[in-house]
Amino acid sequence: MTNYSYIYSFKYDFHHSDLCKLESRQLFDKEEKNGMLFSNIKVDPSISPFIKKRFDIISSSENYSELLKNIKKENIGVDGFKVEYLTLDGDPTEYSERLNKLREIGFIIDAAPNYYSPSITYSLCYYENVWYFGVLKKQNIDWHKHKNKPYSFSNSISINIAKTLVNIASKGNKFNRIIDACCGTGTVILEGCISGYNIEGCDNNLKVYQHTINNLSYYNYTANVYLTDIKDHNKKYDSAIIDLPYNLYSHTNDTLISNIIESTSKIAARVVIVSISDIESIIKKSGLKISDFCTVEKRGKINFTRNIWVCEKEISKD
Ligand SMILES: C[S@@+](CC[C@H](N)C(=O)[O-])C[C@H]1O[C@@H](n2cnc3c(N)ncnc32)[C@H](O)[C@@H]1O
Questions:
Q1: Would you say residue 242 has pLDDT above 90?
Q2: Which domain holds residue 157?
Q3: Do 52 and 197 fall within a single domain?
Q4: Which CATH number is 92's domain given?
Q5: Ligand 1 pocket: which of 149, 153, 165, 183 to mutate (most atoms <8 Å of CB)?
Q6: Most ligand 1 atoms within 8 A of CB, residue of 182, 248, 262 to mutate
């Protein structure tokens, strides 16, 4: 009925729409649309701030009675199960009809249900004339605890952006070796750690380096952090993230930025660069090729826009 194995549901604030689409292009090679996406790529929803649920398709049919027969054939007998309805874009099914359908499926499953603390959550959804039955995996919101990390800058990137940067840099590959080249207080490293990525950090400022060390130990993470200028760091990585110094509280100029980008591109083939200035020409001069881009607005005491460039090292033709 469908060639896809997974349906993802997304939720995000309006000002994160472009960031969510950038993340989904990098993780799934296509954009989420209207808060949903069909894919054969398996991603744990907990690594993304925007993916709320993953629906693992067990059976699908244009005919609802047919779907019930298919569910019966599955002989599901898992005690502690729950059945939930997943409402997708364009589903006209009324609330009462949804409840009836969930009840019908509940009766078919030959096991004891548990609504409050289920061992497994089955799910029903409807999209473009097709009924789907599957297992629902929800985002674990444990990462929200990082909002209360002991040390941060008032203009540090949000944990939402930090979380997506790690996914964008690695394309979701947990075997990638990632470096946060200007780690500041460690916002990005914390998100890499909780998502199970192989991530390290580097900063040339003693005070913020210590803040990162303290933030990591507060949550018992063991990522390596180096107190060094990125130009003196010679270890190799698959991908790097650079949240460039901004002019708000620190002095920076084009030469410093260019040096940071060039040094980072020597140790990683793929670099995700964040800056509040338009530095596209500096990136291009550094020999990196921009493969994707988005902007994220920051609203608060000071309003500004962050630019995010996804870059790859240009392979020399010689
Ligand atoms: C915008 S802040 C990063 C903020 C960080 N993402 C956070 O959430 O805390 C940029 C950081 O780059 C560091 N930095 C500046 N030049 C550097 C260099 N050449 N090598 C390594 N770190 C550098 C600064 O010390 C500063 O902490």
A1: yes
A2: 142-313
A3: no
A4: 3.30.2130.30
A5: 183
A6: 182
